[in-house]
Amino acid sequence: MAKIVNSNKKAEITMHMSEFEMPPMQDVLIVGRRAPIGPEAARRMVDILSPDQYEIVKVDHPAIEAMVVRKALFTMLPAEKLIAFLLEEGGRVANESIIVKAQVNIVLQVSKSIDL
Q: Partners of 28 in the beta sheet?
């Protein structure tokens, strides 16, 4: 009696492509207190790759030492509100030894009434 061997091998490949960004970071880096790259090294990195585009914000948080924030975001939202939001949400996933990059999309809605 012959043995029947079924062998199904499959490979599924998924690829996401996007525009290469300089520097290779997004809108925000959340730097943990014991991360391999501290805020000063992160500042030097972004200053070399993209001068004057990012700001280092030191924060008072048990696990997060600083945030490297794309300055353009501060033109859309007050810094204290954006940092408070980033700390609240980033603090849920970050720990002392990690650097988290975040993409932040801000959509402003404006509605006005005018006299007729």
A: 69, 102
* CA–CA distance, 88 with 84 (Å, rounded to integer): 6
Residue 71 token pair: 């300055």
**How many CA atoms are closer than 13 Å to the CA of 53, on its beta-carbon side?**
18
pLDDT tens across the length of the chain (116 residues): 667 777 788 878 777 665 555 556 678 989 999 999 898 898 888 888 888 999 999 999 999 999 999 999 999 999 999 999 999 999 988 899 988 888 898 888 889 999 99
List CB contacts of 15: < 8 A, sequence separation 6 or more: none
* CB of 61 closer than 8 Å to CB of 35: no
Cα torsion 27, 33, 37, 43 to 10°: value is: 50
Local structure of residue 12 (DSSP, 8 states): -
One-letter amino acid for residue 3 of the chain: K
Looking at this protein, which amino acid is placed at residue 82? L
